[in-house]
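tl;dr need the bound structure. longer version: we got a ligand (adenosine-5'-triphosphate) that a collaborator sent over and nobodys looked at where it sits. i said id run it. heres the input, straight from their email, havent touched it
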Amino acid sequence: MDFLTLSSDIFGLDIGDLSLKIAFLKKKGKKIQLKAYGEKKVPIGLFSRGEIKKQEEVIKIIRQFVKELKIRTPYVVSVLPETKTFIKTIEIQSLVKENILESIKKEIQLYIPFKIEEIYFDWKIISERVNKTKILVGVSPKHIVDSYLFVLKNAGLKPVSLEIESIAILEALLDKKEKFLKPLGIIDLGATRSSLIIVDEGIVQLTISLPLAGAVLTQSIADELKISFDQAQKMKIDFCKGEKNEVVEKKVNLFFENLTQSLINHLKFYEESSKRKIEKIIVCGGGANLPGLIPYFEKNLNIETIKGNPWVNILEKPPIPEDKSLIYTTALGLALRALQEKI
Ligand SMILES: Nc1ncnc2c1ncn2[C@@H]1O[C@H](COP(=O)(O)OP(=O)(O)OP(=O)(O)O)[C@@H](O)[C@H]1O
Ligand SMILES: [Mg+2]
């Protein structure tokens, strides 16, 4: 009976600077069903680079959004902003459990610009060999985690966990049936931020924030044509749907060039330091819809490139078109994590 299972329903909520997205999955036997999904635009200024700037307004908009989608469970798996989290695989010598924590603390201090008292961290053992324990560590500043928890709770929700975005993206895009162990790069092209996630042996090795994202492209079109951001945004989307526009085309090509240059440097760095070659690129986020992006990457990065399919672990037949699906990658990854949580 439904009322017995109601309390264990958990939905996924992706929080970005310019939009919120919900994906709510439910298990029926072995099958997964999509119960609800949606996107809500967030006005400029409520967030800045992942930091909550206007708490009351963020609380209001989350509350409204959940209500609009008629979601009745308060349990949610949400996400921390990629720019304010840090993920790294470390290797430590010790196998003694009590010493692991101290070793992790010592090791991560080398990589983060915060004091250990200022952060929360979470970790998972990946492999254990004599004298060598591989551990995946996720870190975020306390004030960021606390502010996300604060708005979620005040919006009437019960956060079950806050994920690191790259982990959620991986959950959505890597086909669980096909263990891909070779190095691959996932590129998430968002509105205010983009990131390159390097995955090797099925695990996130590192994430890199890229300074180029959809809103930067839109703004460059607005500046060139001296029109508003919203007008430029419409022009960009029309161009993506096939409408001819020389200015937009020029800006899109420039965007590809800059993005590719930055990717070449980061990929080269990983390949040289790990001595492993990136074998595949998967692109997700709204920017993955820019026409010509996939062949441009294939040609200039010289790596097989595909668009991600965030339904791969959920449904055989995607219920929404590909361009829409790509913007729900994180939300669907969070919803998949939610299915694994127990409350
Ligand atoms: N069909 C499309 N063609 C081209 N660009 C698109 C399309 N749909 C969305 N975009 C662009 O993608 C961006 C939004 O992508 P997405 O929803 O993945 O970002 P986000 O996750 O909200 O942003 P962020 O991760 O920065 O918080 C916007 O810049 C938008 O203009
Ligand atoms: Mg995003």
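gonna send this back to them w/ a short note. Residues 175-312 form a domain with the Nucleotidyltransferase; domain 5 fold (CATH 3.30.420.40).
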